[in-house]
Amino acid sequence: MKNVSVFCGSSPGAEPAFASAARDLGREFLRRGLGLVYGGGRVGLMYEIARTIHEGGGRVVGVIPRDMVERELAYAEAGALRIVETMHERKALMAGLSDGFIALPGGLGTMEEFFEVVTWAQLGIHRKPCGFLNVAGYFDPILGFLVRAEALKFLQPEHRAMILSDPNPARLLDLFETYRPPEADMARWALDMSKT
Ligand code: AMP
Q1: Which ligand 1 atom is at minimum distance from the Cα of 73?
Q2: Alpha-carbon distances of 125 from 7, 11, 82, 135, 155, rounded to whole Å
Q3: Which of 56, 59, 68, 154 could form a disulfide with 35 if both were Cys (CB 3.0 to 4.6 A apart)?
Q4: For ligand 1, which residues put their CB under 6 angstroms from it?
């Protein structure tokens, strides 16, 4: 793995533990020589991780739609800023530049971006690891939802197993290094879903 996308809140969240976890993850990227791909902003947890990596001498690529730059929230100092026209282009470029995808705590934007790349993994569009940095149990309710979705036959066990999770940045990235995607293709996926 060379570059990993991090999706996270444009807010810092209510607890200092969230910003602190974003900085810890940034330091783990630096230790491993991993480049950060992120939304390019100077806000919330996004800024915490990007600043930690940039100031520590690491690689940061921000991918930001033009109208967000114009609102002067782009973190241009961090290095490579890739300006795109739409949110769709942003997500496609971030996905193409990355060898894995992490969600830190965040809101609707974070969830939407993370689950889109997980859905692409489920369809076999890519085979890259996806996981939650589960700071202070923030993602426990959604992990519980996924257990329920599997129990109720809306989600295959091997697809739930694709979603990695750990509260510790080093352990999460170790899971990324050893990740093996399920050997499913589109046809088998469709067949399996019809049997359940
Ligand atoms: P949320 O999890 O709802 O806070 O959304 C995170 C998302 O906020 C990011 O992926 C962006 O779509 C969006 N966002 C808000 N402000 C900025 C900014 N200044 N730069 C980049 N993305 C931003």
Answers
A1: 19
A2: 19, 30, 23, 28, 17
A3: 59
A4: 9-11, 39-41, 43, 64, 68, 73, 106-110, 113
